[in-house]
Amino acid sequence: MCGRYASTRGPEDLVQRFRVDDLRVEETLAPSWNVAPTDDVWAVLERTPRGADDDAEARRELRALRWGLVPSWAKDVKSGARMINARVETLHEKPAFRRAFTRHRCLLPADGFYEWQQVKDDATGRTRKQPYFIHPEDGQVMALAGLYEYWRDPRVERDDDPAAWLMTCTIITTDATDAAGRVHPRMPLALTDDHYDAWLDPAHQDPDELRSLLGSPADGHLDVRPVSPAVNNVGNNGPHLLDPV
Protein backbone atom coordinates (compact mmCIF):
# COMPACT_ATOMS: atom_id res chain seq x y z
CA MET A 1 0.00 0.00 0.00
CA CYS A 2 0.95 3.65 -0.02
CA GLY A 3 -0.20 5.47 3.09
CA ARG A 4 2.17 8.43 3.27
CA TYR A 5 4.30 10.35 0.82
CA ALA A 6 6.20 13.61 0.37
CA SER A 7 5.17 16.31 -2.11
CA THR A 8 7.14 19.53 -1.82
CA ARG A 9 7.27 20.91 -5.39
CA GLY A 10 5.53 24.24 -5.89
CA PRO A 11 2.81 24.77 -8.51
CA GLU A 12 5.15 26.73 -10.77
CA ASP A 13 7.52 23.75 -11.02
CA LEU A 14 4.67 21.28 -11.54
CA VAL A 15 3.03 23.37 -14.27
CA GLN A 16 6.26 23.30 -16.24
CA ARG A 17 7.12 19.66 -15.50
CA PHE A 18 3.73 18.31 -16.57
CA ARG A 19 2.94 20.86 -19.32
CA VAL A 20 -0.19 22.10 -17.54
CA ASP A 21 -2.57 24.42 -19.41
CA ASP A 22 -4.63 25.68 -16.47
CA LEU A 23 -3.74 26.43 -12.87
CA ARG A 24 -6.37 27.70 -10.46
CA VAL A 25 -4.59 30.52 -8.69
CA GLU A 26 -7.07 30.31 -5.81
CA GLU A 27 -5.90 26.76 -5.05
CA THR A 28 -2.69 26.69 -3.02
CA LEU A 29 -1.00 23.91 -1.08
CA ALA A 30 1.98 24.17 1.23
CA PRO A 31 4.89 21.77 0.71
CA SER A 32 4.40 18.59 2.73
CA TRP A 33 6.93 16.00 3.82
CA ASN A 34 4.17 13.93 5.45
CA VAL A 35 1.15 13.75 3.15
CA ALA A 36 -1.54 11.66 4.86
CA PRO A 37 -4.96 10.29 3.85
CA THR A 38 -7.72 12.94 3.58
CA ASP A 39 -5.10 15.66 2.97
CA ASP A 40 -5.46 17.84 -0.12
CA VAL A 41 -2.81 16.92 -2.71
CA TRP A 42 -1.72 18.18 -6.11
CA ALA A 43 -3.09 16.23 -9.07
CA VAL A 44 -2.54 16.62 -12.82
CA LEU A 45 -5.61 15.74 -14.89
CA GLU A 46 -7.28 16.50 -18.22
CA ARG A 47 -10.94 17.43 -18.69
CA THR A 48 -13.18 19.66 -20.76
CA PRO A 49 -14.40 22.78 -18.95
CA ARG A 50 -17.87 22.52 -17.40
CA GLY A 51 -20.48 23.87 -19.80
CA ALA A 52 -18.15 23.72 -22.81
CA ASP A 53 -19.30 22.55 -26.25
CA ASP A 54 -19.22 18.83 -27.00
CA ASP A 55 -16.31 19.30 -29.42
CA ALA A 56 -14.22 21.32 -26.95
CA GLU A 57 -10.73 19.98 -26.34
CA ALA A 58 -9.71 18.72 -22.94
CA ARG A 59 -7.23 20.90 -21.10
CA ARG A 60 -4.55 19.80 -18.66
CA GLU A 61 -5.08 21.15 -15.15
CA LEU A 62 -3.24 21.21 -11.87
CA ARG A 63 -5.83 20.78 -9.13
CA ALA A 64 -5.90 20.27 -5.39
CA LEU A 65 -7.85 17.07 -4.64
CA ARG A 66 -8.62 15.28 -1.41
CA TRP A 67 -6.67 12.01 -1.03
CA GLY A 68 -9.11 9.14 -0.50
CA LEU A 69 -11.53 8.43 -3.32
CA VAL A 70 -15.23 8.93 -2.65
CA PRO A 71 -17.33 7.19 -5.35
CA SER A 72 -20.05 9.29 -6.97
CA TRP A 73 -22.68 6.96 -5.51
CA ALA A 74 -21.39 7.12 -1.91
CA LYS A 75 -23.84 8.40 0.70
CA ASP A 76 -21.16 10.41 2.50
CA VAL A 77 -17.43 11.16 2.37
CA LYS A 78 -16.42 8.73 5.13
CA SER A 79 -15.59 5.93 2.67
CA GLY A 80 -12.76 8.02 1.22
CA ALA A 81 -10.45 7.34 4.16
CA ARG A 82 -10.54 3.63 3.25
CA MET A 83 -9.92 4.14 -0.50
CA ILE A 84 -6.51 5.77 -0.59
CA ASN A 85 -5.16 2.96 -2.80
CA ALA A 86 -6.46 0.99 -5.78
CA ARG A 87 -4.77 -2.30 -6.66
CA VAL A 88 -3.72 -2.38 -10.30
CA GLU A 89 -4.76 -6.02 -10.58
CA THR A 90 -8.44 -5.37 -9.80
CA LEU A 91 -9.22 -1.68 -10.29
CA HIS A 92 -10.96 -2.32 -13.64
CA GLU A 93 -13.43 -4.60 -11.83
CA LYS A 94 -14.08 -2.91 -8.49
CA PRO A 95 -17.31 -0.83 -8.44
CA ALA A 96 -15.54 2.00 -6.60
CA PHE A 97 -12.83 2.37 -9.24
CA ARG A 98 -13.89 1.00 -12.63
CA ARG A 99 -15.74 4.13 -13.79
CA ALA A 100 -12.87 6.39 -12.78
CA PHE A 101 -10.40 4.04 -14.49
CA THR A 102 -12.02 4.59 -17.87
CA ARG A 103 -12.93 8.28 -17.46
CA HIS A 104 -11.06 10.02 -14.65
CA ARG A 105 -7.33 9.34 -14.46
CA CYS A 106 -4.67 11.59 -12.99
CA LEU A 107 -1.04 11.87 -11.98
CA LEU A 108 -0.05 12.66 -8.40
CA PRO A 109 3.38 14.34 -8.13
CA ALA A 110 5.56 13.05 -5.30
CA ASP A 111 9.16 13.35 -4.14
CA GLY A 112 8.96 9.84 -2.76
CA PHE A 113 6.88 7.67 -0.45
CA TYR A 114 7.13 5.96 2.94
CA GLU A 115 6.80 2.30 3.81
CA TRP A 116 7.22 0.49 7.12
CA GLN A 117 9.01 -2.72 8.03
CA GLN A 118 8.79 -4.79 11.18
CA VAL A 119 12.21 -4.85 12.88
CA LYS A 120 13.36 -6.36 16.16
CA ASP A 121 15.05 -4.13 18.70
CA ASP A 122 18.11 -6.08 19.90
CA ALA A 123 18.22 -4.13 23.16
CA THR A 124 14.62 -4.79 24.22
CA GLY A 125 13.68 -7.81 22.11
CA ARG A 126 10.51 -6.01 21.05
CA THR A 127 9.29 -5.59 17.49
CA ARG A 128 8.64 -2.11 16.14
CA LYS A 129 7.78 -0.53 12.79
CA GLN A 130 10.72 1.19 11.13
CA PRO A 131 9.75 3.77 8.47
CA TYR A 132 11.73 4.05 5.23
CA PHE A 133 11.71 6.82 2.64
CA ILE A 134 11.78 5.51 -0.92
CA HIS A 135 12.54 7.89 -3.79
CA PRO A 136 14.27 8.13 -7.19
CA GLU A 137 18.05 8.20 -6.91
CA ASP A 138 18.25 11.16 -9.29
CA GLY A 139 15.88 13.27 -7.18
CA GLN A 140 13.35 13.70 -9.98
CA VAL A 141 9.65 14.02 -9.22
CA MET A 142 7.60 10.82 -9.35
CA ALA A 143 4.32 10.81 -11.28
CA LEU A 144 2.15 8.39 -9.33
CA ALA A 145 -0.71 6.93 -11.37
CA GLY A 146 -4.05 7.81 -9.82
CA LEU A 147 -7.79 8.01 -10.32
CA TYR A 148 -10.14 10.82 -9.37
CA GLU A 149 -13.88 11.15 -8.92
CA TYR A 150 -16.58 13.74 -8.31
CA TRP A 151 -18.94 13.50 -5.34
CA ARG A 152 -22.09 15.60 -5.13
CA ASP A 153 -22.88 16.86 -1.63
CA PRO A 154 -26.67 16.48 -1.25
CA ARG A 155 -26.72 19.15 1.46
CA VAL A 156 -25.90 21.87 -1.09
CA GLU A 157 -28.93 22.91 -3.11
CA ARG A 158 -27.45 24.40 -6.29
CA ASP A 159 -25.28 22.45 -8.76
CA ASP A 160 -23.37 25.58 -9.71
CA ASP A 161 -22.29 26.19 -6.11
CA PRO A 162 -18.59 25.19 -5.83
CA ALA A 163 -19.35 23.70 -2.41
CA ALA A 164 -21.67 21.18 -4.08
CA TRP A 165 -18.79 19.17 -5.56
CA LEU A 166 -15.89 17.36 -3.91
CA MET A 167 -13.04 15.99 -6.03
CA THR A 168 -11.12 13.09 -4.50
CA CYS A 169 -8.37 10.75 -5.67
CA THR A 170 -6.64 7.44 -5.03
CA ILE A 171 -3.14 6.08 -5.77
CA ILE A 172 -2.72 2.92 -7.86
CA THR A 173 -0.42 0.31 -6.31
CA THR A 174 1.42 -2.69 -7.72
CA ASP A 175 3.91 -5.37 -6.67
CA ALA A 176 7.06 -3.75 -5.33
CA THR A 177 10.24 -3.96 -7.36
CA ASP A 178 13.79 -2.68 -7.05
CA ALA A 179 14.87 -1.58 -3.58
CA ALA A 180 11.28 -0.94 -2.51
CA GLY A 181 10.59 -4.67 -2.58
CA ARG A 182 13.02 -5.22 0.28
CA VAL A 183 10.85 -3.08 2.53
CA HIS A 184 7.24 -3.81 1.55
CA PRO A 185 5.52 -6.10 -1.02
CA ARG A 186 3.46 -3.25 -2.51
CA MET A 187 4.36 0.17 -3.89
CA PRO A 188 2.70 3.07 -5.75
CA LEU A 189 2.84 2.74 -9.51
CA ALA A 190 4.72 5.62 -11.15
CA LEU A 191 4.46 6.34 -14.87
CA THR A 192 7.21 7.37 -17.27
CA ASP A 193 7.02 10.56 -19.32
CA ASP A 194 6.08 8.74 -22.52
CA HIS A 195 2.87 7.43 -20.92
CA TYR A 196 1.59 10.71 -19.48
CA ASP A 197 -0.42 11.81 -22.51
CA ALA A 198 -2.19 8.47 -23.06
CA TRP A 199 -2.95 8.05 -19.36
CA LEU A 200 -4.43 11.52 -18.93
CA ASP A 201 -6.42 11.64 -22.19
CA PRO A 202 -10.12 11.33 -21.18
CA ALA A 203 -10.99 10.13 -24.70
CA HIS A 204 -8.77 7.09 -24.16
CA GLN A 205 -11.22 4.63 -22.58
CA ASP A 206 -10.22 1.14 -23.71
CA PRO A 207 -9.59 -0.84 -20.48
CA ASP A 208 -7.08 -3.24 -22.03
CA GLU A 209 -5.03 -0.45 -23.58
CA LEU A 210 -5.10 1.49 -20.34
CA ARG A 211 -3.97 -1.52 -18.34
CA SER A 212 -1.02 -1.93 -20.72
CA LEU A 213 0.25 1.45 -19.53
CA LEU A 214 0.40 0.06 -15.99
CA GLY A 215 2.48 -3.02 -16.71
CA SER A 216 5.45 -2.04 -14.56
CA PRO A 217 6.59 0.79 -12.30
CA ALA A 218 8.50 3.70 -13.81
CA ASP A 219 12.04 3.01 -14.94
CA GLY A 220 14.86 4.22 -12.76
CA HIS A 221 16.61 3.18 -9.62
CA LEU A 222 15.09 3.82 -6.23
CA ASP A 223 16.97 4.76 -3.11
CA VAL A 224 15.78 3.53 0.28
CA ARG A 225 16.82 4.90 3.64
CA PRO A 226 15.52 4.48 7.20
CA VAL A 227 14.07 7.66 8.66
CA SER A 228 12.82 8.82 12.03
CA PRO A 229 9.64 7.33 13.53
CA ALA A 230 8.50 10.96 13.81
CA VAL A 231 6.82 10.47 10.43
CA ASN A 232 4.39 8.07 12.13
CA ASN A 233 2.62 11.09 13.64
CA VAL A 234 0.59 12.93 10.99
CA GLY A 235 1.05 16.13 12.97
CA ASN A 236 4.79 16.13 12.28
CA ASN A 237 6.05 17.79 9.12
CA GLY A 238 9.19 19.34 7.70
CA PRO A 239 12.31 18.32 5.75
CA HIS A 240 13.84 16.76 8.88
CA LEU A 241 11.51 13.78 8.37
CA LEU A 242 13.68 12.73 5.41
CA ASP A 243 16.92 12.72 7.37
CA PRO A 244 18.49 9.24 7.51
CA VAL A 245 18.80 7.56 10.89
Brief write-up:
Belongs to the SOS response-associated peptidase family. This protein is 10% helix and 34% strand.
**Approximate shape:** globular
Name the helicity range.
under 10%
Largest sheet: 5 strands, antiparallel
The order of strands across the largest sheet is 3-1-8-9-13
- Terminal-residue CA separation: 23 Å
Protein structure class: mainly beta
Rounded to the nearest angstrom, the radius of gyration is 18 Å
* Percentage beta strand: 25-35%
Family: Belongs to the SOS response-associated peptidase family.
GO molecular function: hydrolase activity
Protein name: Abasic site processing protein
Organism: Streptomyces galilaeus
Sequence-ordered SSE layout with sheet pairings:
Blueprint lengths: L4 E3 L3 H7 L4 E2 L8 E4 L4 E8 L11 E9 L17 E3 L10 H6 L1 E6 L1 E9 L6 E10 L5 E11 L12 E11 L10 E3 L7 H5 L6 H6 L9 E5 L19
Parallel strand pairs: 2-5, 5-11, 6-11
Antiparallel strand pairs: 1-3, 1-8, 4-5, 4-7, 7-10, 8-9, 9-13, 10-11, 11-12
